[in-house]
Design goal:
Elements lengths: L10 E10 L12 E3 L2 E5 L4 E12 L2 E12 L6 E14 L2 E11 L4 E12 L2 E11 L4 E11 L7
Antiparallel strand pairs: 1-10, 2-4, 3-4, 4-5, 5-6, 6-7, 7-8, 8-9, 9-10
Length: 156
């Protein structure tokens, strides 16, 4: 998903920005559903690699990528983290974010997106190098060359 938006206001740059993300708070204890074209499992190191049209769903949140590495907890007691690469898109409610990589730590309920992050919220967009999403709070912090263009609402 490639997003290109036209804006009519002045750009604003900042070092770090806190924003709302998604319309609901995500329950990180919900089951994680994964679909993909291919799966490779390594019992030795407790990982699985999903490739090709990977789609992850957890509650209302959706994450898609070309490749996702799943790291399991010791003793196969669930998932510890997910590492997504290759055209990552994260969607929660009406908010969507794109990046080159996303790391989801299940225990902390945090997704860190990195590499040319673009967050769209309706007609507004923000870009940065990294964005850390706290799913349980429905918030995100963007850092590294943060840029946004705010809509004025005027019809010039």
């Amino acid at each position: 998903m490639s997003v290109f938006l036209l804006f009519s206001a002045m750009p604003i740059a900042a070092q770090g920005t806190n924003v709302a993300f998604g319309t609901i708070r995500q329950d990180t204890g919900l089951p994680v559903e994964v679909t993909a074209d291919n799966l490779s499992v390594d019992q030795g190191d407790g990982t699985a690699v999903f490739t090709g049209n990977v789609l992850i769903g957890q509650g209302e949140m959706r994450l898609s990528a070309a490749r996702v590495l799943v790291v399991y907890r010791a003793e196969a007691e669930g998932i510890a983290r997910l590492e997504a690469t290759g055209g990552v898109t994260l969607v929660s409610g009406k908010d969507a974010a794109e990046s080159e990589r996303a790391d989801y730590d299940i225990d902390t309920g945090t997704i860190v997106m990195s590499g040319n992050v673009l967050l769209t919220q309706g007609r507004n967009a923000l870009s940065s190098e990294t964005m850390s999403v706290k799913l349980s709070e429905g918030t995100a912090q963007m850092s590294g060359g943060v840029k946004t263009i705010l809509q004025t609402g005027s019809k010039n």
